[in-house]
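Dissemination and training. As part of the outreach component of the grant, students in the summer workshop were shown how a complex can be specified as a set of sequence lines and then modelled as a single object. The example used during the hands-on session is reproduced here so that future cohorts can follow it. Participants entered these lines:
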Amino acid sequence: MSETATPYGLIAEFATPADAMHAAEKVRDQGFKRWDVYSPYPVHGMDKAMGLKNSKVGWFTFCGGVTGYTLGMVMIWWMNAHDYAIPVGGKPMFSPFSAFPPSYELTILLGAFGALFGMLIVNRLPRLHHPLLKHARFKLASHDRFFIVIECADPSYRGDETRALLESAGGHNIELVEE
Amino acid sequence: MARASKTVNGVQLTAPPQELVREPLVANQRGLGWLSDAVAGISERPTPKWWWPAFLTSLGLMTVCFAMIAYLMSTGVGVWGLGHPVMWGWAIVNFVWWIGIGHAGTLISAILFLLRQRWRTAVNRAAEAMTIFAVMCAGIFPVIHVGRIWFAWWLFPIPNANSIWPQFRSPLMWDVFAVSTYFTVSLLFWYMGLIPDLAVMRDRAKTKLKKFAYGLFSLGWLGANRHWSNYEKAYLLLAGLSTPLVLSVHSIVSLDFSVSQLPGWHTTIFPPYFVAGAVFSGFGMVLTLLIPLRKMCGLEDVITMRHIELMCKVTLATGTIVGYAYGMEVFIAWYSGNPYEQFAFWNRAFGPYWWSYWIMLSCNVFIPQLFWFKKVRRNLAVVWVMSILVNVGMWFERFVIVVTSLNRDFLPANWGYYVPTWVDILTYVGTFGLFFTFFLLFLRFLPIVAIAEVKGVIPQADPHHPLGGAKPGAHH
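and obtained this result:
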C-alpha cells in the first residue's frame, strides 16, 4: 500500500449470511453511519440488522403514477373535446370512462419509470467507478461471499479500533481499501 | 418410522416425514457459487454447435418476414387473403396470439412474485425475455394491417397534417397505449432484474470488451445492502404495477372485439376469457422453450421437474377456465334468445369453419386435462408435445373468434369464405424467425436464469438456516 493513496475504508469478508448479519448488528450498535454490507443477493432481515429505514422509492412511483393519470385525462380532454372536437355517434365530447383505459396505462407507465429511476436516484446510480471494484477479493461479493465495508470518512471510524471490531465480529481478510 | 437425521454446523437436523418433504427449489443442494458458475457459464463457454444452425435459420426466417412486409407495403393489402366480408384475417389473429404468449412472462415475474411463489425465480428471466420478444412480434401486425403503413404514426398522439388528433373513444387507440406500455414496462422490469446479474457477468468477465459492456449495463452495481433495500422496494412496486397492467392488456385487446356490435364479439365475458387464454398460451410457450433449454444448458438442477410440474398445473387451470368460457359463451348465446347470436355459435361449431372450432376445443380444453395425471406431468416428451398443442389451439381460438364471426354477416348477401394467401402464411412463419433470433441472442449473451433471485431462495442464503451459517442457540 503506497503512502500517498487516500484510504477509502476497511473491508472484512464473511463466509455465510448469518455471520455477516451478526457482524452487521454489531457495527450498527457502534453507531456507524457510512458503512454497508455487500452480498450476492438481498439477505432477508439485513435491513433490520443494519438499522435501515423504509425505502423512499415508493414516493417516486406515486408521483409518476399521479402524473401519468392526470396527463392521460387532460391530454384526451384537450385533444378530443377542446383543441379539435371530434363528434362521434352523438357521444359526449369528453367522458372519463372512454378516457380511462389510456390514462390507466399511462399511470402504470410513468409509475414504472418512477420505480426504476427512483431506485437509481436513491442509490446514486449509475456509477461507472467505485474504489471497491479495484479490490481483488471484492469480486466475490457477486459470487458467494459477504463483505462489510466501513468507510474511513465515517465520524466513528478509528483505524485499529474499527479493525478490531470487525475482527471480533468474525470478519476475515480485513484490509484497507484505497480510494 | 425412523427418520433420517444429520448434523450441519452442530445442529441436529431431523427430516420431516416422507409425505411432508417438499422437493427443493434447487436440486442436489447446489450452493451460491455453483449457481453463478452454472448460469453465467452458459454464455462464457464457447458457442455450442447447435447454436449457429439455429441462429442462421431464425435469421433467414426473419428476413422472410421483412421481405413479406416490404412486398405488402409496395403492393397493398390485396396480397393478403382479406376481402369482403372478412376484413380482419391472419394479421389480427397473429397479433392477439403473440401478445397472449407474452402474458406468461409477466404473470411469472409479477403475479407469482406478489403471491410469494418462490419457484418463479428459476424461470422468470427466460419467461420475461419471451414476453418482450413476443410483444415485438405482436406489435408488427397492427402496424402493417392498417393498409397505408406510412400513416401508422397517426395512431400516436401527434397532430397529423390536418391538425386532427387521434380519436380516443375507439378501443383501437386504447390498444396502442396498452401494448406500448406493456412492452416498455416489461422491458424496464426485465432490465431491472438483470442489473445484479450483469454485475455478476462483469465480475467474471475475462475480455476487455465484456468487462466494458457488462460493466456499462450493470450501472456500477455492487450488491450493497442499502442498494438492495431500494432495489427490492422498486421490484415490489414494479410487480404491483405489472399485475394490473397484464390484466388490462389482454382485456383491452378483447375490447377491440367486444366493444363492436357483432354477434360472437359483443360479449362481456371477453376480458377475463382473453386474459385466461393468454396466460394459458404463455405457459405453453414457456414449457416449449424451457424443456429443451434446461437440457441443452445443463440447468436440470435449477429448472427442476417440480418447476415443470407446477407450470403444467397452471396450464391445466387456465385451460379449464378457457373451457368454462367457451361453454358459457354457448350457453349465453342460447339464453339470450337472440337469433343472430345463436346463429354465430352454431356457425362456429358446424359452419364452414367447423374444423377450426374443434381443433380449438381439442387442444385447449380436452388435451390439457391429461395434466391431472402426475405421470403425464413428469413425462417431458409428452409435456413438450402438449405445450405445442396448447399454442396450436390458442392460435385457432383467435382464428375462430376473428374469422367465424365475420364470414357470415347478418344478410346472406354478405357471406364469404376467407382463405389466407402465401404472403399471410410466410409473414406469420417469419415472425418466428424474429422471435427466435432475439431469443438465441439472449441465450448467448445474457444470464438466462435470474442468478441473484435463485440464490435468494436456497437454504444456504437464509441466515436463519444451518446451511446459511445459523448457529444453535443464536438469538434469531
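The domain at 53-157+175-457 of chain B is CATH 1.20.1630.10 (Formate dehydrogenase/DMSO reductase fold). Students were then asked to discuss how this feature might be tested experimentally.
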